[in-house]
Protein 1
Amino acid sequence: MGKSGLQVSRLGLGCMSYGTPDSGQHAWTLGEEDARPFIRTAVEAGINFFDTANSYSDGTSEEILGRALKEYAKRENVVIATKVFGRVRPGPNGSGLSRKAIMTEVEASLRRLGTDYIDLYQIHRWDRRTPIEETLETLHDLVRAGKVRYVGASSMFAWQFAKALYTADLHGWTRFVSMHPHYNLLYREEEREMLPLCEDQGIGVLPWSPLARGRLTRPWNATSARTESDEFGKGLYGDDEPIVDAVGRIADERGVERAQVALAWVLSRSAVTAPIVGATKPAHLTDALSALQLELTDEECAALESPYCPRPVAGFA
């Protein structure tokens, strides 16, 4: 993970797909009985890195992950990542990165995960209402207390992340070891500043939505239950048919699935440590693992990249 000593598998299993369907905002999630086989398969395939958040499906994602890992893996062999920031209850202090919110939510996450510590505790977004000094000192205190091993961050502007790194260094507080950005063939704005910053500072990069919420895995006009109900995802992408078509052409030429091509491209980026992949069908994990063996040529990468056009920043708080 960047220049830290933490070792993670080349893929991380994203657990936003697992949670009680009638909890939270994701009606397409898999309940516990359906989710557990995916977590078990991931462990058996050598994936040791599992990513969730306190806000996923009203916390039931953490509960499902914690119970499954307790059965399928030794705690010391897996890396559990979760996040804090999103709203988890109405009223004051029910969201954000204040000391009060973080201290409350880390205890709640520990209970739901059924563990004594969190390997990677990530701020889910930048909190404009809380001084970064307050957030960083609180995270440092959690590391000192043994409740958190490492801290990471997610989508924000590069200047904000640089400020956080500088502030931590200035005060001798625990530094972020990872960045969890929105990054895939349809959204490459992070290449302008965030990815170069991470490479320069030795920060591990853990892209979310590396398959663009499934848009890169099927023909342009095809849809899914998630596509139809994912209000957040509807605002992330635009007219990307030429890129999707390029993925399809290369997949056909190689005799592989589209998901393998799109994920192999993300894996080929020098800054990327481990893309976070979701899986709600057995083929999703199979394709993700197969992508590890697929090496794209320079010509294929150029064909995938050339249709891209600059676009507005998307996915920030």
Protein 2
Amino acid sequence: MSAADTTTAKVPPTRPSTVPGAGGGTGGAGRPAVRRSAAGGAALPWTLLAPCLLVLLLVLGYPLARLVTLAFQKFGQPQLWGFQEPESVGFANFTKILGDGEFWAVVVRTIVFAGGAVILTMVLGMLTALLLQRVSGWVKILVNIALVASWGMPIIVATAIFKWLFDTDYGVLNWLLSRLPGVDMIGHNWFAGGPQGLAVIMLLVVWGAVPFVVITLSAGLTQVPKELEEAARLDGAGSWGVFRYVTLPVLKPIIVMLTTLSVIWDMGVFPQVFVMRGGRPEAEFQLLTTYSYDKAFVVNDYGGGSAIALVTVVLLLGVVAVYMRQMLKIGEVE
């Protein structure tokens, strides 16, 4: 047997195509089937998302469209009761609020409030999640039960508890602080000024937000490779070095997501301020949400209130855009 025969014998026979309609020529009779399969695969996610998108459209679509419409109209009590027709005023509502110094004071107050609440929430959540990795199993179970219970508590109930804790005459916190040597906090009014009162409301917001952060970060910490932590310790890294160069990079996508959600939630705080101040927040307690509510339902300037709410939505969309950019960068690195 020649070398040519040996080489030819080793070549396996060509298998017939199993794709229906596949031809042997270069015309590619099987390509339409592949294209149909790819098209069906691309349509499947949208088919599965269709019910959720429909619900969102029904629940949020009309209110958002109505909000945009009112923001460009003169709409007060005469228009509400049908005595007058709504009058289109263009950007007059936005010009009015953007030229109002009180509006910008509320914007700054809202940003400071949300920033402080987010930082405090993330720091306490991270410390608690790291602590839960070092305790025994039964302690972790008890802490998780307490976290879920506080997370599931209605906001109105939590606000009532905080009002009792910081009450001027019967507050537990004033009594506890007065037990310290040289401290007399009996009768101290925490809501006499805006900074102290907003700090109390911030603690209330953080108290309700920390459980979600802790539970999410605890789940993320289980995905940190133990081998990398051990290798870092063998290389001489301390606890801070292991956290900074091993744990933190693994948790970065989760931290970005939690930070973005916290900013959105904390900039949209309403019931905590509204209930804590008895339904009528003073000027130094106004945030964007309560300020928009007062303009619309107290002053009966629904156009101005809608314009403030629309500006708030635009600010939150900016936060979402930053979040999407960060997530795309993380995806490119990975």
Protein 3
Amino acid sequence: MSMAQQAEPAVAPPPAPGPKEADGRTRERSMALRVLARPEVGVFLGALAVFVFFLIAAPSIRDGGSMATVLYQSSTIGLMALPVALLMIGGEFDLSAGVAVVASSLTAGMLSYQLTVNVWTGVIVALVFSLAVGAFNGWVLMKTGLPSFLVTLATFLILQGVNLAVTKLVTGNVATDDISDMDGFDQAKAVFASSFDIGGVEVKITVVYWLAFAALATWVLLRTKYGNWIFAVGGSQDSARAVGVPVTFTKITLFMLVGFGAWFVGMHQLFSFNTVQSGEGVGQELIYIAAAVIGGCLLTGGYGSAIGPVFGAFMFGMVNQGIVFAGWNPDWFKAFLGVMLLGAVLINLYVRRAATRR
């Protein structure tokens, strides 16, 4: 036997393939867990429970006209809850959203009346103003690094004071003048505050806008690069910047989207009631944020959807009108909302943990 033959190691045949051992890291989650991991699932179940509850507790709400009222109430909240939710997914929130709605409608109403111009001029100026407020919030936030709580709280106080002071200075009272007889009013009302008939039930156009904007926001979040940027900056701003995400652009445009929502809802209010009270809007920002939180958006950012706030807004509208139709004391409304908010947050937390548990 040669030396080469003696040095050659023996090679054992490979073991026969056997069944793969699955562990918690590689095991594919079941379909049920993947569904539960969606941020809108918990609020959908909650909205369904509230809906069934008031169908039983308030039989009059089953009427088509009553449901149209619930949907209208939900849409006025949902139109603002959508951009607020996108901003929260991006890691920020806006405390000035409520008074920004009123500031936009005041701008359009006073400008149109005092200058006696076509109301569309006031509408366009109000849009520029609302976008500028959003851009200002985003710019200050990114320039200074201050928390959005402080920046938008300052904007909230500024707008609240300006709304009241300027309205009194210009009109002599706390409300704008009636603009219903001005040029362009009927066309603007048809766009922002009209109704249409479905089976003998009058439905507000805001319901259509609400659902259409929700579908658009869902597509943006799930199918576009900008949607990826929103989740990225909400998850980790530094990491997002490191991989080339335009963090400043994304944050500022998210605040401008809130400004656009404030303009849209403000125009609806103006052309629905022909006049605007300058002291309104305070406290509404908490409703918008609560609808987004109930809808599954986290205050820490990086998680949420556009569909969840739709159900969150519907829950608010259902509770608001359901209490009235049930004949209960409306003083309990805010307490009910507080319980609902806490319950929704706890349910969402439990569902997410159960869905991601290995």
Protein 4
Amino acid sequence: MRLSVMDVGSNTVRLVVADAKGGVPLPVHTAKWRLRLSEQVDPGGPLPEEAVERLVGAVAEASRTAAKWGAGPPQAFATAVVRNASNRSEVLREVRSRTGVGLYTLSGELEAELTFLGARRWMGWRSGPLALLDIGGGSLEVAFGRGRLPDFVASLPLGAGRLTHEFFESGDQPTPELVRALRRRVRHQLRDVAARIRWEGPHTAVGTSRTFQQLGRLCGAPPGRHGPFTERRLHRADLREAIVRLAALPATQRSLLPGISAPRANQSLAGALVGHTALKLTGIKTVTLCPWAIREGVLLRRIEDGASWWAEIGRLSEETALQEPVTLRIAAAGS
């Protein structure tokens, strides 16, 4: 059985085509389309018409790519940037009517659950009680569990893109006052969740996001060309030093540092501050960087629970959309 999953995130649309052999999704093709949606919408505001056009084009191309590789219609989901848009319902209807792809939004808690499943399967049972941190563009997902699925999940509005927009929008070298203000925000919103993680006492902690991967490379983790089975770790002490390096530069120059890509340079400092503050509050000194995350979690649930599971996700997404006002209009570009 060949499956495909499409992830509409804050910065990119990503497609994974995989063969389901022995209950494991084995990738045969991956592709991405860079849209940088988070830069075109205020948190909670409408997605502009130009951004919707680009999204429709990317979804259509990803769907054609999946078909070309012999997969059925992709299991397509959108994370915080679309989920929190005030015109979410219209965006989802536009995508479906013009591409035939049912694009669904997942709650932050379900994102955390699926990401945990992917990480648990990659890390194995030897990892024991497992804590998960995932820094997205719009939200931070936290989970803890001892089994296949987590016992505790939380989704907080602490995404690297969201906080960059609020605190570091100019792209200039940030002032110490702004850095401290962002840290205070993270500490305040993460306090109770971090207390739960400390109380649970995880044996292993993982970071699963692209943000963590780039920060790990900045702090000396092996590059991606060494393959997914190379162990990569990120130490809290090293991340603290990395914050000093990132804060000393304007956003345009951070991509000169190892591991920091130009598209993510602007939000790298906010991501590092969220990551370090989360590790400090939870008492975690080191995270293992895990290559499996939410896309693999979706594929695993589809393999293990069948098509009915994804159909239920679609039903819940559509029910949530129906609860919203239908008078919202897609915002004009630049409005």
